[in-house]
Each structure stands twice: as C-alpha cells, then as structure tokens.
Design goal:
This protein is an alpha/beta fold. It is built from twelve helices and ten strands. Helices cover 42% and strands 19% of the residues. Bound molecules: ligand C2E and magnesium ion (3 copies). It comes from Mesorhizobium japonicum R7A.
Amino acid sequence: ESKAAGRGRVTVFDEEMLSDKRYRRLVERELRAAVYLGELELHYQPIVNPDGSAYALEGLIRWRHPVRGLISPAEFIPIAERSTLIDMLGEWVFKRACADVGHFPGRRISINVSGEQLKRDEIVTMCDRVLRETGRSATQFIIEITETVATAATPETLRRLEALRGLGFHIALDDFGTGHCGFNYLKTLPIDSIKIDRSYIRSLAHDQVAQIFVSALAQIARIQDVTIVAEGVETQEEFVLARAAGCNRFQGYFFSRPAPRDKVAPLRSIDAEPLAQSA
Ligand code: C2E
Ligand code: MG
Ligand code: MG
Ligand code: MG
C-alpha cells in the first residue's frame, strides 16, 4: 500500500509502475487517447476578494478514467511532462477555459502552465492562435507558473513570459514559499500576483515566523504592485489571519472546493454581506 493511499487518496500510478518504461508508454498512450475520448475535465475553484466576491476561477484538470475513476493531476501531469504530451494537454486546458469563461461574467480564468511548456515557443504561438480561434481576449485569463519554474528560468523562458504578458495575460507565481525564490526575484520577474503556498496559511495560527513571512511578502508586494493570494484557506480563522497579514485574495475549501463548471456555486457579488470581520 502506498503512502498516498494511507492519507485517504488512491494512487493510481505508483512509482514502481512509472519506473517501468513500457508501462509509462501505455499510460502516455491512454492519456493521449483521453483527449479525443473526452475523458478530461476542467474543474473550477473561485479565487475571492476580501469581501468574498469572486475575482477569478482557477481551472484544475482531472482525468475521468473509465476504469480507474477520477484521477488527480498530481498523478498524470508528471507523466505528460516527460514528453510533448504536456503541450497537447495544455492546449486542451486553454481551449476548455476559452469555451467556459463566458459562463463566469466579469471573472478571469486562471490556468496552470507547466514549466515544460515554457521551454518551447509553442506556448506563445498556441495561446495566440487559440485566442484568435475563440475570439477571447488574453485579459480574461491568468497563467500560473510555479515558483520552481521562475527560479530556474532561462532568458528564453523569461522572454516567453514577457510575450504572454504582452498579449494581455496576467502571470501568477504559484506555490510561493516551497521553492527557492528570494525576495530579490520578485523585482525582476514579470508577474502580477503571488500565490502563497497553503503550508504557510496552515501555519499562520500557531507559527509567528509564518505570520512575519506572509506580512513581509505582502509589504514587498504592495511596493512592487503585485497581488498576494492565500492558497488553501480551509477555515474562517485562516481567512481572517491571512487577511490581517495583508493578503489581497483568497482561495480554498473554506470558500469552495473545485467543481465542474455547471456545479460551481453561485458566485458572491461585491455587495454581499461580509464573510468575516477583520481581525
Ligand atoms: P495548484 O495549482 O497549486 O492548485 C491548488 C491545489 O490545491 C489543487 O489540487 C486544489 O484542488 C487544491 N486545493 C484548493 N483549495 C484547497 C484547500 O483548501 N485545502 C487543500 N488541502 N487543498 C486545496 P489539484 O486540483 O489536485 O491540483 C494539483 C496540482 O496539479 C495543481 O496545484 C497544479 O500544480 C497541477 N495542475 C492542476 N491542473 C493543471 C493543469 O491544467 N495543467 C498543469 N500543468 N498542471 C495542473
Ligand atoms: Mg495553480
Ligand atoms: Mg498552488
Ligand atoms: Mg500546487
């Protein structure tokens, strides 16, 4: 039994399977077919303002496998990243987001882009082409890249990020605090927002270092004109503490779990009752 299964999650593809090259090929073939068979789904989770109104929705991919059930992206994205299959999935995600963005008037959709995709110019040409094909504007979208990608960024990667930003996309730095991003990076990276990893949000209630880290980041962000998003907010207490520390936006199970497009709960409008008094 795997470690992940012990945490109440079923691991579909374990390490042993993936170290077997033939098995990996098989999963890759199945994943490629999944695109055509319509087995992929993009679920959405709101990113909210301090008053609880929805600012954007993050699109999170899932694979509804006919035999293995609903598979988490943590399981199959790493497999896709081993080849240009990730480009194919990335295009599927962006097309899906373009098709769905009209269902959430006035809200942006945030999509996750793999560091592997940023290694090729295809990311820029694909986004540009899909926007033209669908008649959408890049200003309706946010592209999330992980902190690891940003710190390992080559001049070419940075040029691609600048190009995407030039098209009108907002760029968000995902899972901040888990990698090695020094505060000095924040000056040079072409980003519009920083998403603080949920491990920091979880620590706010009992760890003064986490509070100071988040507050300092929020102060720097204000100077750099960058927005701070608190990820993985699960309780009202975490929400109040993250807001007190200076976070501008919030995302997590406390507000809503990711859900299929048509099951996303009605989004709160700006004039709704406040969710909590500030601390
Ligand atoms: P991420 O981009 O950091 O997304 C946030 C993850 O945290 C999601 O997991 C989300 O369901 C989960 N989450 C949200 N709120 C809470 C909370 O309050 N508590 C807890 N414990 N978790 C929360 P998910 O959907 O399993 O996605 C995992 C990762 O897979 C994502 O992390 C992202 O890195 C990657 N991913 C998801 N969709 C895509 C995609 O379309 N393309 C690429 N390249 N990667 C994707
Ligand atoms: Mg993300
Ligand atoms: Mg994240
Ligand atoms: Mg993550």
